[in-house]
Amino acid sequence: MPSDTTPLPALAILGAGSMGGAVLRGIVRSGLGGGGITVTNRSPEKAAELASLEGVTSLALADDPGANAAAAADADIVLIGVKPHMVPDLLREIGPSLRPGTCVVSLAAGVTIATFESILGSGIPVLRSMPNTPALVGQGVTGLAAGSGVSAADTAVVRRVFETCGVVVEVPESQIDPLSTISGSGPAYVFLLIEELTKVAVGRGFDEADARRMVEQTFIGATALLAASGEDPAELRRRVTSPNGTTERAVAVLHDARLDEVFTRATDAALARARELAAG
């Protein structure tokens, strides 16, 4: 939760899908949306899901085709949450309605700040963000990169938006794609480890429910201990790994599997795909 309790300025989230919706819920949960929040979605059904959130005006493009431009006109910060291929058309649609100085923030993977700036022109500060899915429960990591026309005050207020759903790491734009391979894709790596260890537990004779309970709570407990202790994870691992014990034997097998190389190859593959998407 942000330490600064000053209400956020007026916000618009255009395309409040999974990630835009996660940020929206973080703002609502924080109680900082005092400036008002307007969100848009294509369908009335999706708009209705968000309409009950406190302080939120939820609009459906099916009912009001001009909702994006109207929401952007009234906002001090506009978050762009539509699919990447839809971004240029949306920017052309809302550009004439934006007031000078309105911060426009991308949630769209692979769309560069240069794309935003070339369409919106000067006078509109542009930032690029890369949140991850744990933002849904207020435990996200958001990478944040500022464009050429962004002031320190602009960055600070946008940072506060994302701090409502986790922590923020400010990086140059060149680091957004590498960041996406770590924190952006990272939850999938963790879920995969949980999947595989659960299969092992079932293979050891535990039923599915007990296997899931053991494995999932082990990961939850380990990360909670890491957060509470403030210790380096390597030190916590050493404390679990008694000399000549069972854990030491297991960890030796994992080291022999060269997990460092596996994760390097995996993140290299993710980075190559991110660059393909940006180029295409």
UniProtKB/TrEMBL annotation:
Pathway it works in: Amino-acid biosynthesis; L-proline biosynthesis; L-proline from L-glutamate 5-semialdehyde: step 1/1
Subcellular location: Cytoplasm
Pfam families (UniProt xref): F420_oxidored, P5CR_dimer
Pyrroline-5-carboxylate reductase dimerisation domain: residues covered: 173-277
Enzyme Commission numbers on file: 1.5.1.2
Domain Pyrroline-5-carboxylate reductase catalytic N-terminal residue range list: 11-110
Organism domain of life: Bacteria
Location, primary (coarse class): cytoplasm
SUPFAM superfamilies: 6-phosphogluconate dehydrogenase C-terminal domain-like (SSF48179), NAD(P)-binding Rossmann-fold domains (SSF51735)
Catalytic reactions of this protein: L-proline + NAD(+) = (S)-1-pyrroline-5-carboxylate + NADH + 2 H(+); L-proline + NADP(+) = (S)-1-pyrroline-5-carboxylate + NADPH + 2 H(+)
GO terms, molecular function: pyrroline-5-carboxylate reductase activity
UniProt keyword terms in alphabetical order: Amino-acid biosynthesis, Cytoplasm, NADP, Oxidoreductase, Proline biosynthesis
Similarity-based family: Belongs to the pyrroline-5-carboxylate reductase family.
PANTHER family attached to this UniProt entry: PYRROLINE-5-CARBOXYLATE REDUCTASE (PTHR11645), PYRROLINE-5-CARBOXYLATE REDUCTASE 3 (PTHR11645:SF0)
Function: Catalyzes the reduction of 1-pyrroline-5-carboxylate (PCA) to L-proline.
Descriptive protein name: Pyrroline-5-carboxylate reductase
Organism of origin: Microbacterium koreense
Gene: proC
